[in-house]
Design goal:
By secondary structure, this protein is of the alpha/beta class. The protein is built from 12 helices and 12 strands. The strands form 4 sheets. The chain has a 6-stranded parallel sheet. A two-stranded parallel ribbon has the order 1-6. Strands 2-5 form a two-stranded antiparallel ribbon. The N and C termini lie close together (6 Å).
Length: 366
């Protein structure tokens, strides 16, 4: 078993909010709400430790959304209260829509203070047998949601200045979080998975982006954000094709981005969605260089039915044809509750899946 992250048995980050916490969010504010969140986080960290995981998150219990809660706290970015982004998600029953407030880059982007600092320190001080892991959206998500139209040309007449300021703000976030003792940080990035979908690339092209090469820009800016990461910090990225109330937004294997993604992105590990045919085959893993870890998201978070160990082991063996078994770990394909609403399964089913991942990893890697 590995003694540094990502671990053989790991998970992406978000967890189903307990009913008591959901009620608290509807009725409480300020210190009272934070006390309710504290209690829920203590319990969910205990559950992760009890299951046998080597890392733990706070389940993202203090957030309404995996990414927008962070992005809106970056200096220079605000909500467009009169406009919403519409993201269409799909499931077996039909389509549903996620409509967060649109964002606007209305001033120079900066980091006013480390984001989620208090959240991380509470997690750090709560964890006992596990490595505390913080998840934040990658810089790509600031651009992908709004595109060029979200950037005020009076603030950034030269788009290169926007990218420089964005990566600099993230680099400072990484430094400041590292100073608080964070040794396991994850950049969540749906954009690098969405770009494998021709329909998503067509949408970006229609708004004026160079969709065929957008992943190269995103990789460049993430690397700039990581260029001075603290020693001893592991940084991973998680890529999926959307996760909202057990629904998804995009399809397609990793082929379009794989060579540049695996060969050039300077992270330590890749959490990859591989729970069904929408994610394509394992062939793109041939581009993963030695020393980089691949966390196979073979266990779905979109339904409660428990996968079989034999199926998971067979799929790990299939992936090992393209990347060394020693570079592979196991996880769910995404979080269980990317937004406060959560996916359509129970807490018991969620923890059963995490326990299955731990047990399977022990049997595969010892």
């Amino acid at each position: 078993m590995r003694t540094s992250p990502p671990f053989r048995a790991d998970h992406v980050g978000s967890l189903l909010r307990p009913p008591a916490l959901l009620r608290a969010r509807e009725t409480l504010t300020g210190d009272a709400l934070r006390e309710a969140e504290d209690a829920a986080i203590r319990e969910v960290v205990r559950r992760q430790e009890e299951i046998g995981l080597q890392s733990a998150t706070d389940g993202e219990f203090r957030r309404a959304s995996w990414h927008m809660d962070f992005i809106y706290r970056l200096g220079g970015i605000g909500q467009a209260t009169d406009e919403h982004i519409t993201v269409r998600f799909h499931n077996e029953q039909g389509d549903i829509e996620f409509t967060p407030a649109a964002l606007r880059v209305q001033e120079r982007i900066r980091l006013n203070e480390p984001i989620f600092a208090d959240d991380f320190t509470f997690l750090r001080d709560t964890a006992t047998t596990v490595v505390p892991k913080l998840t934040i959206p990658s810089p790509s998500m600031v651009h992908y949601r709004g595109g060029p139209a979200a950037i005020d040309p009076k603030v950034y007449p030269d788009v290169e200045e926007f990218w420089r300021d964005l990566s600099a703000a993230y680099a400072e976030q990484v430094r400041r979080i590292g100073a608080l003792g964070c040794t396991y940080l994850q950049f969540d990035d749906t954009s690098l998975a969405y770009l494998n979908d021709p329909a998503q690339r067509a949408e970006l092209s229609s708004r004026g982006d160079d969709a065929e090469h957008m992943h190269l820009r995103y990789i460049k800016q993430i690397n700039a954000a990581l260029a001075a990461k603290p020693g001893g910090m592991t940084i991973t990225t998680h890529m999926c094709r959307g996760n909202f109330r057990s629904s998804w937004a995009a399809s397609g294997g990793y082929d379009h981005v794989a060579e540049a993604l695996f060969g050039e992105l300077k992270v330590d590990g890749f959490f990859l969605e591989f729970d069904d045919e929408r994610s394509g085959g394992f062939e793109p893993l041939r581009f993963v260089p030695p020393g980089k870890m691949v966390v196979l998201g073979l266990v779905t978070t979109k339904r409660g039915e428990l996968e079989s160990k034999d199926t998971l082991k067979r799929r790990i063996d299939e992936a090992a044809k393209f990347v060394d078994l020693d570079q592979i770990c196991l996880s769910p394909q995404c979080g269980f509750s990317s937004t406060v609403e959560g996916n359509e399964l129970t807490a018991d089913e969620q923890f059963a899946k995490l326990r299955l991942i731990v047990e399977t990893a022990q049997e595969v890697w010892g």
